[in-house]
Specification:
With about 90 residues, the protein is of the alpha+beta class. It has a domain of about 45 residues. The protein contains four helices and four strands; from the N terminus they run ααββαβαβ. The strands form two sheets. A two-stranded antiparallel ribbon has the order 1-3. Strands 2-4 form a two-stranded parallel ribbon. The radius of gyration is 20 Å and the shape is globular.
Length: about 90
Amino acid sequence: MRKLFGSFALLLALTTAAPIASTITAATASAPVAAATTVYVCANGKTVVYHGGKDCAALRRCTYEVKSLTTTQAQANGLRGCMKCY
């Protein structure tokens, strides 16, 4: 009986939350990272990604200097967002 009640409560919560999620505007759902946002890059000369924070697991493996750039600068240098951060 508890499993049935738990499943019903979960189903009820999911169905009532759906209309709220659909009210998100298109601008906020796919908002790009702001141009003035600071991102971090491992300065090993081979990197192809930028990271959203110094606490990213991929960036913590960097044994070289970590440099900060703006998102615009990083993208102008041909870098893409880290798969773990973005």
